[in-house]
Amino acid sequence: MIGAGRWRSILSHAILMAGVAVIVFPVYLAFVASTHESSAFLSGVAPLWPGSHMAENYALLLDEGISTSGSPPLAPMLLNSLAMALMIAIGKIVISILSAYAIVFFRFPFRLTAFWAIFLTLMLPVEVRIIPTFKVVADLGLLNSYAGLSIPLIASATATFLFRQFFLTIPDELVEAARVDGAGPIRFFIDILLPLSRTNTAALFVILFIYGWNQYLWPLLITTETKYYTIVMGIKRMAAVADADPQWNLVMAAVILAALPPVLVIVFMQGLFVRGLVETEK
Amino acid sequence: MATVTLDMVSKVYPGGVTAVKDVSFDIADGAFCVLVGPSGCGKSTLLRMVAGLEAITAGAVSIGDRVVNDLGPAERDIAMVFQNYALYPHMKVYDNMAYGLRNRGMAKADIDRKVREAAQILELGALLDRKPKALSGGQRQRVAMGRAIVRDPQVFLFDEPLSNLDAKLRGQMRVEIKALQRKLGVTSIYVTHDQLEAMTLADQLVVVNAGRVEQIGAPLDIYDKPASTFVAAFIGAPPMNLLPATMGGAVPAAAATIGFRPEDVEIGHAGEGLQFTAEALAIEPVGAESFIHCRIGDATATLRTHGRSMVAPGETIRFVAPHGRLHWFGGDGKRL
Q: Is A177 near chain B, with CB under 8 Å?
């Protein structure tokens, strides 16, 4: 740090640690809660130290689920979420990188109009267009299907916009060099553009995977069969039970399990993710 | 290898800006042609039209016997070296050079042979496994050259390839490019705004101004007989002194401007020629020579003298511009 005194260093570390504590403590509480019996919560005071029922809570959830609250086993729900998140993330990237490629590198009529039309849809999140979208999906017979879970969420103005901004930084000379080298549009895309956007794609993948994984409202609307339930909506069903106390230990275990995959994605893709967000020089 | 012919070539951009107007010239097989001019004069547009990167509005460009107007850059059998090198950042040096050949569907063994040959010529052998990021400016420049060489093109096109290098390296690369072009004997077109590069590299110099060709010829012919005041002022450093003709004694009838090169004057002598009296403004000693900037009436001029100058700023100096070394230009700027 520039002209940093010892105290400034201590202070900034203290602030960072406080920030970490604020974020980590609830996660810790959730973890602790998932290791107790359900009776541990009846007093209204949450325990602060891990209990002894961790293995049985998690095993119960993954294999059987809580049948009393209409919640299927967690393992298939996790798989559903994974499938949905992957389809959304990959689908979004494929579609948006292609549209950005068209918008930036090709001259066609209404090119700008197309761009602004895409850009305008940024202002229409899923929730705003949810009723018409539901109607379309229902009419297409896509209720209770993976296609119905993912396709309506795939079109992405944000990703298109980000890819466009990145493509604009690619020097014209590079495009021209490729033309002189005899690379047609498809060759150029595959041999040059895709490898160059590797880090951006990775960063977007992480963001979009988490976006897909965290979808709640949409899966809640279009799935009625338990075998298409996703984990995030499943948690809600576990917590909101009628005529019984919610089993907080199991709910918290489900929360921990649901939070794991996004965390793993970030951990494993961290290097690329950070470079994709920070790197500007090509 | 081939001749290159431009026949009444024009470029009008959508929106009506004319970048190039009715340009015609031929480049002989194996010749090194340099297009030189100030920025925005259309010289790069000309080059890009030969390359096929820019559509030709009117006229015809031929390479060899083929009119190439409607061919894409890859079909014209040319290779281009760009100002910023335009190396593919994610590819190793080897792949950068091999990429164009792969796209042509050449056999792997042939590609390997060609790339290694070019690497040897350019002394890139040790760098083949590096990425462009790990190379210095000069090395990147060589790779860009290598990418051009491996294709065995009919024509090399250079778009200000040295302008991103520092002065010393630029001088060195200039010599190398010239030697390489001699050795390979490939017809080359080279665009630059640097008149020194233009003078030293060219077999054929084309001075471009405002989208038109101002003069074509051998560099020294252009230096000795500039066709217009523009060329006179552009070629040569420091440029030719241009003074209103009223300052001369025996002036040709139509003359509006007298020109003389800084090195053609004799300071302090009273020989044959136009006599001038001037006030020295500043002295630039460069070592082997000195430049004296001086004022003559309302105009300024630069004089060059060997060795150190004894003149101090503010002093009055007399010099003679010999008759044989004078250039006369008419009111339209054309040489008389």
A: yes
* Section B129-148 average pLDDT: 90
pLDDT one-digit tens code per residue, A44-93: 677 777 777 777 777 777 776 665 555 677 788 888 889 999 999 999 99
Give residue B4's pLDDT band: very low, low, confident or very high (50, 70, 90).
very high
Does B193 reside within a domain? yes
Is residue A33's pLDDT more than 60? yes
Contact assessment for residue B293 and residue B300, using Cβ atoms and an 8 Å cutoff? yes
- Written as six digits, the tokens of A14 are 């203290």
3-state DSSP assignment of residue B319 = strand
* pLDDT at residue A1 is higher than 70: no
- pLDDT for B227: 93
- Domain termination residue (choose one: B209, B231, B253): B231
- Domain residues for the domain of B143 are 4-231
- Interchain CB contact of B99 with A (< 8 Å): yes
Q: Which of B83, B90, B100 sits opposite A181 (nearest CB)?
A: B100
Residue of A nearest to B101 (CA): A181
The CATH architecture to which A34-278 belongs is Orthogonal Bundle (1.10)
| Residue B323 and residue B274 in contact, taking contact as beta carbons nearer than 8 Å | yes
B-chain residues within 8 Å CB-CB of A109? none
> Is B200 in contact with B174 (CB distance < 8 Å)?
yes
Q: Residues of A with CB below 8 A from B74's CB? A: 179-183
Q: Closest Cα of chain B to A202: distance in Å?
A: 16
- Domain CATH for B69: 3.40.50.300
CATH code, domain with B268: 2.40.50.140
Domain locations along chain A: 34-278
Q: Is A218 left (phi over 0), alpha (psi -120 to 50) or beta?
A: alpha
Task: Nearest chain B residue to A187 by CA: give it.
Answer: B103
Are A196 and B51 inside 8 Å of each other by CB?
no
Is B99–A191 a contact, with Cβ atoms under 8 angstroms apart? Answer: yes
Q: Kindly state whether residues B178 and B53 are assigned to the same domain.
A: yes
Of A180, A191, A195, which has the smallest distance from its Cβ to B51's Cβ?
A: A180
Pair (B43, B115) in one structural domain: yes
A271 vs B320, which has greater pLDDT?
Answer: B320
Structure tokens at B272: 């044959």
Q: Are A114 and A120 in contact (CB under 8 A)?
A: no
Put simply, whether A183 touches B (Cβ < 8 Å) is yes
Q: Does residue B336 fall inside a structural domain?
A: no
Number of domains in chain B: 2
What is the ipTM, given to two decimal places?
A: 0.83
Considering the domain boundaries, does residue B335 fall inside one?
A: no
